[in-house]
Fold this sequence. Notes:
single chain, 6-stranded mixed beta sheet
Amino acid sequence: xxxxxxxxxxxxxxxxxxxxxxxxxxxxxxxxxxxxxxxxxxxxxxxxxxxxxxxxxxxxxxxxxxxxxxxxxxxxxxxxxxxxxxxxxxxxxxxxxxxxxxxxxxxxxxxxxxxxxxxxxxxxxxxxxxxxxxxxxxxxxxxxxxxxxxxxxxxxxxxxxxxxxxxxxxxxxxxxxxxxxxxxxxxxxxxxxxxxxxxxxxxxxxxxxxxxxxxxxxxxxxxxxxxxxxxxxxxxxxxxxxxxxxxxxxxxxxxxxxxxxxxxxxxxxxxxxxxxxxxxxxxxxxxxxxxxxxxxxxxxxxxxxxxxxxxxxxxxxxxxxxxxxxxxxxxxxxxxxxxxxxxxxxxxxxxxxxxxxxxxxxxxxxxxxxxxxxxxxxxxxxxxxxxxxxxxxxxxxxxxxxxxxxxxxxxxxxxxxxxxxxxxxxxxxxxxxxxx
Length: 436
Ligand code: GLC
């Protein structure tokens, strides 16, 4: 596809079927929207800020296009540095910057589970961006507000979902995607048995099984969808229960059967590479993988769809809540220029553009409901009714990171072969200590 030289979004004269006048807005991934109020940023023209941005999927390329546009319109220069691909590695890196009161990081992506922990190190955005924040979902703004201080601006939301190969389901006689984890197991097994001869790399199910924050998200979904609880409820760690133990052992049974052995070291991109390469029937991932899978050069373009993650029969489908906000370091030497960059990045125009070119879920309701976004992300409406499960970072604040680390380490050791009934009691004790 040829890159256009026009600014984006551009209005192209696209005659509708009925011949009524009007046009459609075209979104070009190589051209970001213009800065809505460039005069605000121009006051700081010539300043240079460092932004710790995305590193997963097309995230970094998209950041570069946005930063280039922002510099063109305001004269503020942006040094874009991709954060580590693992959320908890990024957490550790930022912690070092913050503890050293470093001014080497001005703007940064903040995982939805961090505002409580990092609030003391973040610039209060209330006076500059508080009014704009009112356009975003209240719940996300509440998550980014700590002791009355707006420490981050919502940027995009995330939730876990099941990606599946429509062509293979049809080939093996399935009219619907799996509703339960048992269905997923039997369907994956049948499809692998059939495909293995032609493709020895073919597997049934890939997900985030490495010992990192992503596994906390996946395993929370396993538990919450099978009556195993949501980790921490009413001030108590709830993982030590028979349903949770049974489900974790069920997941252990996937390794080396429907899932590759290597899945115990997979993060988002490892899973996506297998699925997008045409080598897996099912994948658990976040919405960004949708746009990537539909790219012109994707082997599975037009051959997959998304649906809620399975649940045990009688239980609700769930998806762990993820997402990222943008914050400004309290130690930045250019806080005003930094705020202007955040203003641009979280604007309705940019959220619309990112949704269309990268399937990032908007945090502004009017953007999420717009025709362009619903067309680019047809799953938004059907997925809206799925129960969203938060990780307990709200109540745990700066204790969440250690709490989650004990959980994902324990779950990873189960996936690697240990019996859940021997791991979970100790894991629960560690989690209780971390929460204490
Ligand atoms: C996604 C989510 C984030 C989560 C991470 C785990 O980036 O948006 O909230 O912590 O995945 O890998």
